[in-house]
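pipeline stage [seq->struct] | target=Alpha/beta hydrolase | organism=Phytohabitans maris | residues=383
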Amino acid sequence: MITRELLAIPMAGGGRIDINSGVARLSGTIWATLWRDDAAPRGTVVLVTHPASNFLGHYALRDLAELGVAAAGLATRYVGNDTTLIMENCVLDIGAAIRHLRGLGYERVVLVGNSGGGGLVALYQSQAEHPDLTATPAGDPPDLTAADLPPADALVLAMAHPGRAQVYTEALDAAIVDEAEPFARDAELDMFAEKNGPPYTSDFLDRYRRAQLDRNRRITAWVLGQLAALADRGHPASSSEGPSPDDLPFVVHGTAADPRFLDPAVDPSRRKLTTLWGPAWAANFQPATLGHVTSLRSWLSQWSYDHSRANAPRCLPKVSVPVQVVYGDADCAAFPSHARQMYDAIPHGDRELVEIRGADHYFQGRPDLARRMCEHIVDWASR
């Protein structure tokens, strides 16, 4: 009989107030759901995670349990709200979950990073095997060299991209010339301007990709300047105004402008020409899409191309355990080139690259393909 259990997992402190809810902060708890066959021994468990998505009801959990392995879906402390997300704290949450599962009697843990979880689980395993990060990119706790981070026994990067900072930069609107005015645009770098395509020329794509990276770096330079200014203007804790604020929120416009959303010849696949939130022009500005609101410190940890550590191609060379990369050839968010980039970064031969033909990012309308992905994961976990 397949059962589902809610797991209350002790949460390690992150050293800052970065969760809005006092109830969540003071509870000292993160949550996971565990699906398992009551008749099966507690041998292997698959832990599925993401930096901010609510995976308590992840679509793969029941299938994995029915196929013979226990499956847990983890919600980090930042579930549903990544405006102040610190990747290094997410690493602490994964460590707490693995320790908890081992305490329940599971001998082997297969860590699955789904979607934006790919870069995170690669960061986790690299730090579990070779800890070297003593602070966040902003210089804050946690010190991961002093954390208890039990290594996973294998990794799966499922429908995953290399990391939030990379995929975010690949979708930054290069035409925005004033961060406060999203419709003040450089016509020569506007992928939505008919004169530029689609189809896009190689010259336009080269200029566009360089401009995206330049924009990410301009924002990062501004962030570092803002943090320095906050430190300089701070009031001493003994003053009537209390401690100085050391972080601020800000808005980033135009975060769904990857040329792959409009031109099928860029990174060819069977995908539909859209985004996870609908047509690209509207998604580019909708508040609910990726990374429109962030804090200074979270930007460095989560979105800065040069500062964020949660990048699978950079982390995987330090990983010794088996790694499976699973991708869909109809995915409009994690592309075939992403899968190949991560696979090529694995430094050993205990690796596997699996294509699921016809699968989009969420297997919409295709539960049979989601089941196929789970079959591949279970097969990998059993080897």
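stage status: PASS
auto-comment: The mean pLDDT is 95. The chain has two domains: 2-163+308-382, 169-303.
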